[in-house]
Backbone:
């Protein structure tokens, strides 16, 4: 939406043979030259990284992923391995990881699915089937319940209107329906919220939220905050924030990942690697605007070592 900027673009002087030789050298002998790995992979597009992976295998008959796994560790290893997958494959693995085993990491489902375009959803479903030999919709059915399940399944239909036209009459009508669905009787009519938030285009939703505030005297996020709970509330807030400003939503997620004791490295990797070729430069702008601290500075004080070096390289 609008004019958003990435931090990573295809490297102009890309020479796959020279890259694989440098990576090979970085992993040979005693110790690993992590800096060399960072400066190469942190400055190549996803498509170029895949070429590197392929060429490495053809030349050395070694899987680059396995070589790097044996040389690296911790969050740094996780981030580098994430960078060797096409973005939709990586996202599909993250979705599976969020649903595997006991309990479901619903935050991850919400972050990925509630921020995806129709085409992203279609690609994700294909990638999920390819990597996991499972059906994404069936897994979400099994792993979630009630209104959250209905909302996520609705998103998986990839039926959002994606044009840039605003129908003011419809916006007012939807706003009235949302007020009626929410005013004091949440729990009876989530379907109205779900339908509107998963089907209307983003500009249409922005117009709807303005009418909502005019008609009810309350900002829609405040209403949701007061009237919904749990994961459903997170879904609604994410959808509203993404309709207003997706890059600000991701800036907030990054800030949450670094707040308090301990750092949620997985979220940092998902967003910084996952958005690097889409809108990460704009996310940096939003972060600075919202928190008065450059994102690079926040990461510097929160992460360490090669992991920090890699993230800063991707952030440029």
Residues:
């Amino acid at each position: 939406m609008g004019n958003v900027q990435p931090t990573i673009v295809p490297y102009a002087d890309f020479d796959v043979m020279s890259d694989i030789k440098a990576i090979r050298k970085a992993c040979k002998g005693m110790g690993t030259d992590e800096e060399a790995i960072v400066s190469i992979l942190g400055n190549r597009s996803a498509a170029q990284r895949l070429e590197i992976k392929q060429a490495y295998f053809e030349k050395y008959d070694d899987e680059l992923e396995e070589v790097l796994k044996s040389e690296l560790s911790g969050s740094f290893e996780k981030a580098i391995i994430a960078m060797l997958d096409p973005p939709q494959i990586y996202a599909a693995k993250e979705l599976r990881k969020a649903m595997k085993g006991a309990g479901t990491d619903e935050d991850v489902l919400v972050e990925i699915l509630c921020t995806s375009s129709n085409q992203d959803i279609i690609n994700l479903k294909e990638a999920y089937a390819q990597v996991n030999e499972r059906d994404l919709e069936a897994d979400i059915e099994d792993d979630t319940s009630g209104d959250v399940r209905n909302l996520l399944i609705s998103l998986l239909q990839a039926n959002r209107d994606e044009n840039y036209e605003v129908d003011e009459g419809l916006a007012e009508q939807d706003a009235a329906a949302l007020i009626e669905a929410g005013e004091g009787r949440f729990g009876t009519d989530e379907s109205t919220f779900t339908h509107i938030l998963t089907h209307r285009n983003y500009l249409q939703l922005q117009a709807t939220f303005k009418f909502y505030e005019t008609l009810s005297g309350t900002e829609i996020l405040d209403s949701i905050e007061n009237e919904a709970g749990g994961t459903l509330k997170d879904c609604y807030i994410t959808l509203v924030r993404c309709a207003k400003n997706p890059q600000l939503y991701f800036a907030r997620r990054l800030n949450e990942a670094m707040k308090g004791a301990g750092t949620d490295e997985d979220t940092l990797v998902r967003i910084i690697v996952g958005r690097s070729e889409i809108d990460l430069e704009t996310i940096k702008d939003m972060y600075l605007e919202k928190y008065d601290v450059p994102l690079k500075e926040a990461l510097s004080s929160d992460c360490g070592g090669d992991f920090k070096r890699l993230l800063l390289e991707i952030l440029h």
Observations:
- The CA atoms of residues 224 and 233 lie 7 Å apart.
- The longest helix spans residues 46-60.
